[in-house]
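Tokens in:
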């Protein structure tokens, strides 16, 4: 490679990174807030159930489980039309209109009186959720879960009004969602070249960065199947804990207000679990399963339950692996689509491990989740050793990738219809 090409590559890389950082500074806070609000809307029913939500809607048997799962039926059903729409219309407008729809659907909960209306609204809410890429940032979900708990705690104390306490949860979140949707329509740029915070030169660089896509697909990659199995074993617990987590804590012997406050440290663990391994979740679930509520055990079980939320690292972990270790635009899109399907399937099935006749201890569900967590750990270890083995095999067969020329060749090949399996200069990030 000539000196001029090296200098140009260095300049282009530096300029692109500078533009990316500027875009991040302006858009990430808004995107994180919108996803955090979306997360709160999604789990609001899990807090409302502490305030006679099931009794007021006359839910019996497994109807609450069906209502929880119906959200992900909508999410799954909307995957294809959502991707079709996002490829043909302005993403900013679609996202903002979706947030407005969240708000309307959250407010619609106030008019519900039976199971039929509930599953219709939850299905439509899942359709709206499918527009947003799950897991913008893990920390946002954890932080907004704390806010949701405190909000529910405060609103739950409202009495002697025409509305039930659980209705205020949906009312406040619905109005806030609609307000944010209007804000998104006003402040989110339609395209990079419409971003007012970028100079003309920066707009050109931003457009060029977006245009650097590559094609290629391969469905025989063991890594993809490791990830699919990994996601299934983590989303089965997630589907149940999202809707029944507050009931599990309540089953330890606490009233509804103490349950909300006791749930706060779980959210802190979620927010910080990017640096915490899956082992605390296994240890916590094992402790909850092996103990009962007698004496001081009740508070020990609460501490163990807090540890369970370290499993929250798993979803963004998978998205990060795809971004760093799956090359080829079509292959990455295919892998993402498969992960979202398994993500939805796991969350659909998860609530049904919490059988109504097993309340309030939910022994079967806790035992099942413990097994899923252990299986997740096995998948994680297997995936890591597979990528180490593949890197070593490529180094032995093609030589190590160490020079600027090697890295440049890898980038160039990646942009010419090559997946990570076909690109000999590609190395997995561990």
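Residues out:
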């Amino acid at each position: 490679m000539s000196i001029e090409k090296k200098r140009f590559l260095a300049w282009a890389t530096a300029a692109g990174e500078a533009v990316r950082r500027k875009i991040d500074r302006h858009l990430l806070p808004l995107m994180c807030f919108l996803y955090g609000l979306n997360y709160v809307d999604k789990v609001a029913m899990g807090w409302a159930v502490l305030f006679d939500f099931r009794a007021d809607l006359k839910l019996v048997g497994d109807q609450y489980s069906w209502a929880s799962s119906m959200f992900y039926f909508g999410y799954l059903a909307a995957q294809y039309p959502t991707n079709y729409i996002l490829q043909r219309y302005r993403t900013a407008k679609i996202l903002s209109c979706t947030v407005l729809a969240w708000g309307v659907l959250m407010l619609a909960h106030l008019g519900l009186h039976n199971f039929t209306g509930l599953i219709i609204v939850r299905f439509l809410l899942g359709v709206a959720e499918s527009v947003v890429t799950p897991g913008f940032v893990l920390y946002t979900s954890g932080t907004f879960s704390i806010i949701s708990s405190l909000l529910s705690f405060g609103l739950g104390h409202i009495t002697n009004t025409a509305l039930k306490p659980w209705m205020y949860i949906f009312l406040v979140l619905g109005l806030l969602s609609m307000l944010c949707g209007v804000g998104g329509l006003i402040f989110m740029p339609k395209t990079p070249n419409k971003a007012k915070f970028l100079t003309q030169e920066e707009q050109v660089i931003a457009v060029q960065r977006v245009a650097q896509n590559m094609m290629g697909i391969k469905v025989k990659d063991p890594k993809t199947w490791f990830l699919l199995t990994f996601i299934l074993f983590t989303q089965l617990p997630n589907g149940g804990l999202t809707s029944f987590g507050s009931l599990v804590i309540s089953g330890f012997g606490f009233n509804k207000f103490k349950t909300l406050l006791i749930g706060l440290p779980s959210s802190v663990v979620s927010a910080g679990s990017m640096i915490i391994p899956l082992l605390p979740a296994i240890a916590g679930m094992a402790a909850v399963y092996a103990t009962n509520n007698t004496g001081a055990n009740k508070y020990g079980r609460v501490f163990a339950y807090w540890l369970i939320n370290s499993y929250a690292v798993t979803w963004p972990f998978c998205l990060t692996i795809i971004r760093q270790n799956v090359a080829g635009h079509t292959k990455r899109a295919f892998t993402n689509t498969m992960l979202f399907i398994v993500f939805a399937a796991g969350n659909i099935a998860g609530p049904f491990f919490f059988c109504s006749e097993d309340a309030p201890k939910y022994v079967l569900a806790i035992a099942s989740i413990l097994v899923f967590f252990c299986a997740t750990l096995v998948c994680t270890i297997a995936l890591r050793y597979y990528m180490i083995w593949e890197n070593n095999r490529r180094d032995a067969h093609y030589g190590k990738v160490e020079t600027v020329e090697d890295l440049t060749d890898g980038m160039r090949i990646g942009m010419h219809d090559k997946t990570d399996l076909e690109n000999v200069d590609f190395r997995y990030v561990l």
